[in-house]
Write a structure and sequence with these properties.
alpha/beta, binds S-adenosylmethionine, SAM-dependent_MTases_sf
Length: 215
């Protein structure tokens, strides 16, 4: 089993739908992180393809100059999703209650998940769904930093280090047969450590774990 039952628990085990009931029109990571993510999307996503932005909000961080044939969104707050200009369509679903995605097999060229994977209590089921909806050769990009709603992150994430969280996301991909070996992109802040300790510069660390659906 990928995670033991206690590793899936959250400090706040009330329904996630209640936690996200009020819209948050904020960005959850800084500009440096978002620029790196948009550049990664620019490098890896192709025009005229079908994208699924899961656990999304009012922003998808997609490069504006690229035209996609369809961007499907998903999240827990309808008001946020309704305001996202990059989504062609969206649906609201609590993945910790129902991990089955209402999406067809092999229908997407890319699945994106930005700064949200830490909230999934059943990542084995979700990553298997990601594999199912991806076309062969399709790509999944899971990005994260070191920030989180602490009380809503699963124990396995909360108790880990930044390095162990990378390994955790890799293990999510590895738990599903038919994904390529995961690739890891890590970009720490370019500001020297001694300046960061003085509170100068710094910025949110950037991590992405990427895999392709084989065959
Ligand atoms: C920190 S926000 C990130 C939103 C967006 N990806 C971004 O980059 O701004 C976390 C998102 O995860 C989603 N989320 C959290 N728990 C969830 C759950 N149990 N089921 C489905 N979505 C969930 C919420 O919709 C929320 O918008």
């Amino acid at each position: 089993m990928l995670l033991r039952p206690h590793q899936r628990t959250k400090l706040d085990d009330t329904n996630d739908t209640d936690f996200y009931a009020m819209p948050r029109f904020v960005t959850h990571v800084d500009e440096g992180f978002i620029d790196q993510l948009t550049q990664l999307y620019r490098d890896r996503l192709k025009p005229n393809t079908r994208i699924f932005d899961m656990m999304s909000s009012w922003v998808s961080h997609l490069p504006e100059e690229i035209e996609f044939s369809h961007v499907e969104g998903h999240g827990l707050n309808e008001e946020e999703l309704a305001r996202n200009p990059q989504l062609a369509h969206y649906f609201v679903q609590n993945l910790n209650e129902n991990p089955s995605l209402p999406l067809a097999d092999e229908d997407f060229d890319a699945v994106l998940n930005c700064v949200s994977v830490q909230y999934l209590q059943y990542p084995d089921a979700i990553f298997s769904e990601i594999h199912r909806i991806l076309k062969p050769g399709g790509i999944a990009i899971i990005s994260f930093s070191n920030r989180m709603f602490y009380q809503k992150a699963i124990t396995a994430w909360r108790d880990g280090t930044e390095a162990s969280r990378v390994e955790l996301v890799k293990s999510y991909f590895q738990s599903v047969p038919g994904f390529s070996p995961p690739e890891v992109i890590t970009r720490q802040s370019s500001v020297p450590n001694f300046l960061q300790m003085l509170g100068v510069g710094g910025g949110d660390p950037f991590y992405a774990v990427i895999a392709q659906r084989l065959g």
